[in-house]
Amino acid sequence: MGRTPASSGLGIGLSVQVAKRQRPDRDARIDAHVKVRAVAVGPRDRVPAVDIALVIAVDVAAVRRDAAVAALSGTVAELPDGISYTVLGGGAAQCYPLRGRWALAGPDDRRDAAFSVGRIAAAAEGREPPGYTGWLARARALFAERALPVRHLLLITDGSSRGEGDDTTRPDSALGLELGRCEGEFTADVIAPGAGWDPAPLLAVADRLHGAAVPSPDAFAPAVTAALGRLRRVRSPELPIEVTVRPAVRDVTLTETAPHQQRLEPEPVQDAPRRLAFRTHQWKPESRDYLLTLRADAGHDPLGVPLQLAAVTVGGATEAVVVSWLPSGTAADTARISGAVGRNIHTMNVSTQMRTALTHGYTALDLADRERAEAQLGLAVRLATEIAADWAVDEVRKVARIVDAPRGIVRIGPGVDPGAVRQGMLSITSGHPVELPPVPPAGPAVPCPHCGHPAGPAAVYCIDCGRRL
User: Fold this and answer.
1) Which residues pair with 324 in a beta bridge?
2) Is pTM beyond 0.85 here?
3) Counting Cβ atoms within 10 Å, is residue 244 exposed (0-12), middle (13-18) or buried (19+)?
4) Domain range annotation of the chain
5) pLDDT for 267-299, tens place per residue?
6) Dihedrals φ, ψ of 353, to 5°?
């Protein structure tokens, strides 16, 4: 959220569940369910308004200007006392405050702001728009002058100012480079009235800047209030999940499956070649589920012995990934793992495939590729039926007729509303967690008597020094 770290105010609980018996292949795939529970600690239940710098950027066409003025008046009237804020509009020009760069919300200020936002200009017609790149650069310059713990951009756009540089297909595009400059400086939510926008850059902004992109009616004030409410519940702007692995382990991946679907990118830890850090962001009191996947070479490992393949550490809590390679002749059915752990891991894998298919289907439909859209949406419906993800079936019904859900057969009619397609593309990314039944934890970690590194309760050898526990 910002360079000045706020106190986390979180207590972390961690559990790691994995099928204990595994087939000893030279390229064995091990899936583990990682659940992180964050609970609030301390006297405050939300971020103080005085710790927040907020930029509200309104980018709408002339046809939406009057509705935007009314919504913006309601928005500034509800800002909490003490919050620092700036309102931009009409080509990223400052609309409020009238003097200086930042306003401080209070009774008199809110009255002045509600009147002054009537000056806001619509996106300029006939001139080259600033693009999302221009809005981000303007916000970055403003935040550089306001060193508060929480710095957040609310970009309200109907796509009017999308520019030539707002290309998401190339990381070296103007938008990609500007997002790189903004990441770590501030966070952002995108609120999208109408349906004339291209969803790709909106999702790119929300993803890189750790916020949400949501569709909205022209009266966007409730969406702003909800976004600000989410922001104030954040207790920790960043929380790394570290995974330390044995030398025989490779290809470590970590995917968040709830509350959002996203694959996390690893970063090496200095002076720890077998440790990876996965950054996670905007933690509230909540639970998050992750699917940890490892590739391991079991060719030189003993059979039937509990082995710690990895250790997962979050906020001081550590749990181990412990498996036993089954002797030859007894491992034929281990790929079809059973029990609560197996069912949860299977559900998480299916959910990941389902969301991917749903996104690909909507994207194909937006590009008028009906054949690919039917194939991908049909796959999404089949997978959703398997894990009872009713929300995904409802999303498909908005744009297609479901002929046979268990077999994944859907048909797209001749008249599909483009607005419904684009709004659905944002809706797919916003929440819809996978419901997983609880699995009892294996027990607390214990320190290695030789080096002190935490190890799981069932581990026999230390993952760090290699000696017997």
Assistant:
1) 21, 306
2) no
3) buried
4) 10-43+235-337+439-455, 49-233, 345-429
5) 888 888 899 999 999 899 999 999 999 999 988
6) -65, -40
